[in-house]
Amino acid sequence: MIEQKTAEEVPLESTSPFELRVDLSKNVSESVVKKALETGDIGFLHSFTTGSAVDGPGVRLVAWTAGCQFRCLYCHNPDTWNMMNGMAIPLERAVLALNKYRHGLKVMNGGFTLSGGEPLMQDRFAVRLFAAVKEMGIHTALDTNGFLGERLSNEELEKIDVVLLDIKCWDPERHRHLVGKDIGPTLDFARRLAQRRKPIWLRYVLVPGLTDDENDIGKLAAFAADLGNVERVDVLPFHQMGRYKWEKLGLNYTLNDVHPPSRELVERVCGQFHAVGLTAY
Ligand code: SF4
């Protein structure tokens, strides 16, 4: 049984995106959701967290959106798959909340990152929020799986300083198995960002037995190096911190027996990116 709170009882800030949040917008009508998606007047957010040092340059304030069209087998936040699990937050409230951190983020050379879920499921809200944050003079980052990148116009892309692009794996068949969608749109978005010289920080979740194939990683590394705009690669070791959410949500988690990658494996994968001239951690 999932312990439930109403949207009013839940603070916008959470200590961690690993906090389970469900059904916070279950009373929002379909017409309100439709209009919100069309206009961006309202966003559906899992939470805000502060002080992240891994979601873009410097110290980041991160807003986690609800809604994702991928179903990554290793997802550590499956409560963000459903948009209705997020809180319905008017754009103005989100902007006011962000404004509180404006000074601190500038002092710490940090910025604002929109993550998820998949932020581009709510592309109008994302675009308006980025525009408001840029107005405040704050650095902006979009953390995305890239599948819906075509929803952003070139002008809208200019409000985003860096794209944290999650490429889940290289092999198309494996990608479909791993996330339930094709890899093509993500790679198209990467190429478009390269044409526009928009910096990419590539994120790669390393899961033993699923995304550690040496040959595939070699091809991904070559692709990333050819783009010419990948500033760094973050190799993110798989962990089991999200397993309890799958259990609580009654989802079929298939990675119970998978262990985090060894240090040797992480070093091998980072080395594959280094070998093509990329900075990887
Ligand atoms: S893209 Fe991110 S939020 Fe969506 S299923 Fe994959 S890991 Fe989870």
Give an overview in words.
The chain has 281 residues and is an alpha/beta fold. It has a single domain (7-274), classed as Alpha-Beta Barrel (TIM Barrel). It has helices at 30-39, 91-99, 102-107, 123-135, 154-157, 172-179, 184-195, 214-227, 243-248, 263-274; strands spanning 42-52, 60-65, 87-90, 111-115, 139-144, 162-166, 200-206, 230-237. An eight-stranded mixed β-sheet has the order 3-1-2-4-5-6-7-8. β7 (200-206), α8 and β8 form a beta-alpha-beta unit. The N and C termini lie far apart (39 Å). The mean pLDDT is 93. The chain binds iron/sulfur cluster. Iron/sulfur cluster is lined by residues 68, 70-72, 75, 77, 80, 116-118, 145, 179.
Task: Please write out the topology.
Layout: H1 30-39, E1 42-52, E2 60-65, E3 87-90, H2 91-99, H3 102-107, E4 111-115, H4 123-135, E5 139-144, H5 154-157, E6 162-166, H6 172-179, H7 184-195, E7 200-206, H8 214-227, E8 230-237, H9 243-248, H10 263-274
Parallel strand pairs: 2-4, 4-5, 5-6, 6-7, 7-8
Antiparallel strand pairs: 1-2, 1-3
Helix pairs in contact: 2-4
Bound molecules: iron/sulfur cluster.
Total tally of structural domains:
1
Basic shape: globular
Q: In CATH terms, what is the fold-level topology?
A: TIM Barrel
Helix content: 25-40%
Across the major sheet, the strand order is: 3-1-2-4-5-6-7-8
Name the average pLDDT.
93
Strand content: 15-25%
Name the poorly predicted regions: none
Characterize the largest beta sheet: strand count, sense, and whether it forms a barrel.
8 strands, mixed
Going by helix content, strand content and strand pairing, the class is alpha/beta
Which CATH class? Alpha Beta
Number of strands: 8
